[in-house]
Design goal:
Chains A, B: May be an activator protein for the gylABX operon. With 264 residues, chain A is α+β, with helices and mostly antiparallel strands. Helices cover 43% and strands 19% of the residues of chain A. In chain A, strands 6-5-4-9-8-7 form a 6-stranded antiparallel beta sheet, with helices on both faces. The longest helix of chain A is centred in the middle third of the chain and has 21 residues. Chain A binds a DNA duplex (30 and 30 nucleotides) through helix 3.
Chain lengths: 264, 264
DNA sequence: GGCGTTCCTTCCGTTGGACGGAAGCGGTGT
DNA sequence: ACACCGCTTCCGTCCAACGGAAGGAACGCC
């Protein structure tokens, strides 16, 4: 599947390997470090990094090291599933934050993981595991369950049959359990992850629909668990998701307000 | 200077040309469009785009077109001058927004242009020209003047001697005038752009200092001009800039609060 | 001061991957 | 049915990418 599956390194794959060498822990690297992490000969890394830096995809810092450059960020700011989505959702996320003063998440699905597009956190909030641009297994979090429940059937099957990483004693750990939870999420329209990532945290998530009426993202709110009831958060999260869907132009969000979906 | 100055197209430069083919107006392109915009033969574009899409730098949408991918955005989220800066500044920007409910900008300097890192806008705000990830000439805006005034001397000279694009009758249009304004900005610590981009808008900007006590960014607030006085905004903007500088670990921001810099 | 280490940069002969014209394919409009 | 447009695949040519090697600069240790 990958371009370098046959051990045939192309120039493009090397360039991408260089970008991949950077991580949240290592945002600044020397050429030598890049060459090691990307598995490239020093002279090759030197040449490619030079070209990338010249264009602005990488930048040199004061010490001579390289960092991800502004120019790359400018291009990335055009990603529809990233900043463009964030832009539309921001007002609603701020409302959600104002209503609770807890952690608010906006994420999309990529494979079996969620990628956090935006995060608003309480100043002195509970320990936050998420990071904008960061990833997390979908089966554990509120946003992840909301996204997975509305994903392609074969993707769901891959999640159900695949290994499920365990974070706490309450993390969903078996396929049948995940299948049951996903069905429940589809029935109620919201996903609740109670103590499945951290024992003392609770997350309520809801799917966000795009113009073609498919689920494109999910919002969630994460709160400390003694002190909040999941039931109390369901209406605001659902309303926020509807608002974002409407802003994105989802037909579904324009229809009858909360009748068919509302159970009980 | 450029890698392709000698008309020697390298693979890396072609890959970057492909990324460059995307713009704010055209966020989705077909292979044919990419090949035209990047000036590449179709088969070459096809091969390179395929590799980029395989890695995740580009993504296919429902219609078969290509968009900037999430994976690229993840890497770009590591840029110190982008998201990392934004993260530290966000609480202060929100305070600034709460205090005025007008447009708040955070930007950095790249050449003679500013690049907007973050923007908070009033829901039904005045017409907004800026865009996150967008560029604007530095000599006209509040953020731009604040940044330029503290930039390298030779960069300032390039701005002063270079052509100055005019937006309104009040846009700074001559070198000597710009030189005078920049000196004024350094003296007062704030930059005021009154009607220099749009006739009925006023902007007050202040520099943000990094750990090494150099100016790394600028904050500004943009308000409609009949209804606001620049003088009234100076304290909040300055306080916000100081707050962000402190959050970034600037020694300067820890020193005596507002004595030496405060004039009158 | 001498020496080892580490990292950056440049050079250049070899070679294998990038190149792109051409042809085939599928969809759409007239 | 034909023309058009865009996507995809193929394959022989050739030149740009490759990377080992050597030189150079900066730092730290004995």
């Amino acid at each position: 599947m990958t371009a370098r599956d046959a051990g045939r390194p192309t120039v493009t794959s090397r360039v991408l390997d260089i970008l991949e060498a950077f991580s949240a822990e290592r945002t600044a690297l020397t050429i030598t470090q890049i060459s090691r992490r990307a598995g490239l000969p020093l002279s090759t890394a030197h040449r490619l990094v030079g070209e990338l830096a010249c264009w602005g995809a990488l930048e040199r810092d004061a010490g001579g090291g390289y960092r991800v450059g502004l120019r790359l960020w400018e291009v990335a700011a055009l990603a529809p599933r990233g900043p463009a989505l964030r832009e539309a959702a921001m007002p609603f996320l701020e409302d959600l934050y104002e209503a609770t003063h807890e952690n608010v998440h906006l994420a999309v699905l990529d494979g079996l993981e969620v990628v956090y597009i935006e995060r608003i956190s309480a100043r002195a909030a509970v320990h936050v595991f998420s990071r904008v641009g960061g990833r997390w297994p979908a089966h554990a979090t509120g946003v992840g369950l909301a996204l997975l429940a509305h994903a392609d059937t074969d993707l769901q099957e891959r999640a159900i049959t695949g290994p499920l990483r365990r974070f706490t004693g309450r993390t969903i750990a078996t396929g049948p359990e995940l299948r049951r939870v996903l069905a429940e999420v589809r029935r109620t329209g919201v996903a609740i992850s109670d103590g499945q990532v951290e024992t003392f945290a609770l997350s309520v998530g809801a799917p966000v629909y795009g113009p073609d009426d498919t689920v494109v993202a999910a919002v969630a709110i994460v709160v400390p668990t003694p002190g909040w009831e999941a039931r109390a958060l369901v209406p605001v999260v659902r309303a926020s998701a509807r608002g974002i869907s409407r802003a994105l132009g989802a037909p579904r969000a324009l229809r009858s307000p909360e009748t068919a979906l509302h159970n009980r």
